[in-house]
Design a protein that fits this description.
With 619 residues, this protein is α+β, with helices and mostly antiparallel strands. Strands 2, 3, 4, 5 and 10 form a five-stranded mixed β-sheet that branches. Strands 12-11-19-18-17 form a five-stranded antiparallel β-sheet, sandwiched between helices. A three-stranded antiparallel β-sheet has the order 1-8-9. Helix 3 packs antiparallel against helix 4 (105-117), helix 13 (324-334) crosses helix 15 (379-389) and helix 14 packs parallel to helix 20 (490-503). The longest helix is centred in the N-terminal third of the chain and has 32 residues, at 6-37. The relative contact order is 0.10.
Length: 619
């Protein structure tokens, strides 16, 4: 039998002692690292297991009109949230709370898709729960330990339908929007501006989200206070002040022809700000706040009258006779006509140039100068003026007046004006080279000419300001951007003003819409419409008698047939209301001359001779 030598046993014992000591040292170091150096990490993990973060949405900034009236604000609302957990468990909870929140099968399917897409995030079940549902869930709190109910800010639009298109609305951010650069840092389920000013000024109005931590047990049920363990408060969004006059917007909504479509734009002459931007038919933006009812959304999107379309900035219409001022301006600047000149051929109701072109008045107007042609909206005069100018010079010079560009308003969508730039336009679109007669229809605002009501308002603003109009802005800017500049001589602007004032005098197409306290300069228009009756236009500006204009208004009524009968009263009443309010006159007697005559008696100002204000060059 072999026995180890004593020295060998001692050597092995020493080696074993070193190994054990080394292992104990390693274990000590690891224990020190975990318990001492890594204590913060384990505390954080422990806290993470114990606490659940819930986002705190900030109140969006309040939107005010020019007079300090609230246009849009954040008010208290109730949100129902489900804390994250296994998908099956969350589905079971949704089924149990279904009757209290009125959830449909499609709602639960949509919510479960969100759970599968974002399994670690709280599930927002109802963004705008009514008080009865909230009370029912609170009474049964022990039955739904993973359900969290909290008061959150909810958007409210004070004027509802009157401001829907200009203010817009808010909604939940979509997956596609999350990928856009402007929404970098945003999270799923956040509420953002979808349209209108809410979208344009989203970054300022949004504010900064906060977070609240609630304590949960091992099953994920909330323990302790529902108010949370601790929180980082949300930072409210910035307020927004507008040029908009909310009273005027509500007035326009009140007077616009019932059940008809169209738009009204009002601009402040002094500053160029947007006083009103109204589109009809409209919708109540409050219906789109919170959880949008699918039936409501489907109705808005399938309505044949397109209530979601902002006709003031996106509607394209032939500007009709409101465009004759542009034709006149080009003719005067090119020197092919003078204000007191008569055209060679008088208006007899028709004009022959290859074929017969008619005037709107088949009985004819006879010989007219420029002011008379504008006052009577004589097509025969402007046919001849267009031919004198020539097709290409007409397209070149009218293009310089801004009719192919956007106005640059601070809204997310605006259509630019459409107008041919030369003969190649006809070749590209119709495959033929145009003959000189194409200018005949263009000269009266017909043919391939599509403009928005906002664009026509900017053009008339430039006339009212004697040649220059800033970019129309809804938000109050310290210095609005440069906009449209008309290279028109002061004496030619004076001639255009004479024509616009003559429209409102006896014999003019707008005379029956003249007003008691104010001068009106205006132009009617009746635009051809391939899909129905003609569209009605009236564009112009108004101010105190003998003084300068203070407000520009353009009114469009789709299929209104007559600009002087349908659109002119809307324009006149808009001017009257704004100026009465501005100058402190009673607001309950707004009437046009037509309304006085309809009551069987002449208006007290019907035959009064007024001084004729004339524009003067600045400086």
């Amino acid at each position: 039998m072999n026995h180890d030598h004593p020295h060998e046993r001692r050597r092995r014992a020493q080696i074993a002692s070193v190994v054990v000591t080394a292992l104990l040292g390693v274990l000590g170091l690891v224990s020190f690292r975990l318990q001492v150096l890594g204590s913060d990490q384990w505390i954080l993990q422990s806290e993470s297991n114990r606490l659940r973060p819930l986002p705190l949405p900030p109140p969006r900034g309040t939107i005010f009109d020019r007079n300090g009236r609230v246009v849009a604000e954040s008010v208290p609302g109730y949100e129902v949230t489900l804390l994250p957990g296994p998908a099956d468990s969350m589905h079971a909870v949704l089924e149990r709370i279904r009757p209290y929140l009125g959830l449909q099968d499609r709602d639960i399917e949509s919510l479960m898709r969100t759970v599968r897409r974002y399994p670690r995030q709280p599930l927002l079940v109802e963004r705008d729960a009514d008080f009865a549902a909230v009370a029912a869930l609170e009474e049964r709190r022990s039955m739904f330990p993973s359900v969290f109910i909290d008061m959150r800010p909810k958007r409210r639009y004070v004027a509802g339908e009157a401001t829907a298109h200009v203010v817009g609305y808010v909604g939940e951010i979509s997956p596609g929007e999350l990928e856009r650069p402007e929404f970098e840092g945003y999270e799923p389920r956040w509420i953002i501006g979808k349209e209108g000013l809410e979208r344009t000024y989203e970054q300022a109005l949004q504010g900064t989200y906060g977070v609240r931590y609630v304590e949960v047990d091992a099953r994920g049920a909330i323990v302790g206070s529902f108010r949370g363990y601790q929180e980082e408060p949300a930072v409210p969004g910035q307020d927004l002040e507008l040029n908009l006059d909310l009273d005027l917007m509500e007035w326009i909504h009140h007077i616009f022809p019932d059940s008809m479509a169209g738009a009204v734009v009002a601009l402040d002459v002094e500053e160029g700000g947007v006083l009103a931007l109204y589109s009809a038919p409209t919708f109540d933006a409050n219906l789109l706040v919170g959880s949008i009812d699918r039936a409501t959304w489907a109705t808005l999107n399938t309505n044949p009258y397109h209530p979601l379309l902002n006709r003031a900035t996106q509607g394209h219409y032939a500007p009709a006779s409101t465009f004759k001022l542009a034709t006149a301006a080009v003719g005067l600047e090119l020197g092919v006509v003078t204000p007191d000149e008569f055209m060679p051929e008088p208006c007899r109701g028709a004009f022959r140039y290859g074929r017969i072109f008619h005037c709107h008045d088949r009985s004819g107007h006879g010989y007219l100068d420029l002011a008379g042609a504008i006052a009577n909206s004589c097509d025969i005069y402007f046919y001849q003026l267009g031919l004198r100018i020539g097709l290409q010079p007409f397209l070149d010079d009218v293009g310089k007046l801004g009719f192919r560009s956007q106005c640059g308003i601070d809204l997310p969508t605006e259509r630019a004006g459409e107008l041919p730039d030369g003969p190649s336009w006809w070749e590209r679109n119709y495959g033929y080279r145009p003959n000189p007669s194409e200018v005949i229809s263009l000269s009266i605002g017909q043919g391939p000419n599509g403009q928005t009501p906002l664009k026509m308002a900017q053009f008339y603003l430039a006339l009212a300001r004697r040649g220059q109009a800033p970019t129309p802005r809804l938000a109050r800017d310290e210095q609005p951007p440069e906009g449209l500049t008309l290279d028109i001589a002061p004496e030619n602007i004076e001639a255009l003003w004479d024509g616009l004032l003559s429209v409102m005098e006896p014999g003019g197409t707008g005379h029956l819409s003249s007003l008691e306290h104010w001068d009106l300069w205006g132009k009617s228009g009746t635009g051809q419409n391939e899909t129905g009756r003609d569209h009605a236009w009236f564009a112009g500006f108004g101010g105190p008698i003998g003084g300068d204009p203070e407000v520009v208004v353009v009114a469009l009524v789709e299929q209104g047939e007559s600009g002087s009968r349908m659109a002119a009263p809307v324009m006149a009443k808009t001017v009257d209301y704004y100026l009465r309010k501005k100058h402190g006159l009673p607001l309950d007697t707004v009437q046009t001359l037509r309304e006085y005559y309809q009551r069987g008696r002449p208006a007290p100002w019907a035959n009064r001779t007024r001084p004729r204000p004339r524009p003067v060059a600045d400086g």
